[in-house]
Amino acid sequence: MPEINVSELRRLRLHSPDAIARAAVQRVRRPLVGETGRLMLLAADHPARGAMGAGGDALAMADRAELLARLVAALARPGVDGVLATPDIVEDLLLLGALDRKVVFGSMNRGGLQGAAFELDDRFTAYDARSIVEGGLDGGKMLVRIDPAEPDSVATLEACGNAVTDLARHARAALIEPFISRRVDGRVVNDLSSEAVIRSVAIASGIGATSAYTWLKLPVIDDMERVMAATTLPTLLLGGDPTHAPDKTYAAWERALAVPGVTGLVVGRALLYPRGDDVEAAVDEAVRLVRQRASP
Length: 296
What we know:
Layout: H1 6-15, H2 18-26, E1 39-44, H3 64-75, E2 82-85, H4 87-95, E3 103-107, H5 129-134, E4 139-146, H6 153-169, E5 173-184, E6 187-190, H7 194-205, E7 214-219, H8 224-228, E8 235-238, H9 246-257, E9 262-267, H10 269-272, H11 279-291
Helix pairs in contact: 2-4, 9-11
């Protein structure tokens, strides 16, 4: 793992907070989609929802220096296109110079804290469309969990609709991660049945005043052909967690990546904290699967 100079990050944040804006302006950008039409993104927006567990360790992502080291190592691997993260992590990576020629998605609604009574109230507490544009980011990601028994779900839909519209006005991508959800014994559970995922796709596709810049982020399920038949929007796959059965998970990714319309992967803890702790090997395998086929 690369060594992260946390002292320097803290010094800059304390004495030169404007260094973040300068780094954002100086960042070398790239097209959102390259010649292959595929994207391999790392996800690092979990901690802002209080979800820091990985591989059985409830606080695996709590050490910021270690998390940054894993991200920097993963971003340096050939074929990794970029990252999806909250402002704090994006800004640390900017100060470390790790985001040149990388795609950067800003995570927007992080208010639904894991395990909280208000978990389904996915308010926008991180990026908004204006900050994404001003920061030179490539798009914004939003979580849309819909519980038919939860009246407040409509507030999330409205807020996400506004965000999609605002991002599109500035030709920025909106990456929507939709789920049909419910509470079971007080815990929020996402319904991963084919019918529920297809329904979530239909709902997410109609969010906002235009879908011209809308992308979807969807879970890998057995019936991906039916799921992808429900949309024409570019779609990235939510990687899931192969900690206990990585071979089985990688095989599922490979099958899903072959479905027309699927354009790549967004994977976080599964690659940053893999079984065996070999981040580079895990990332390289994911890149291999994504690059096997070129999208139209």
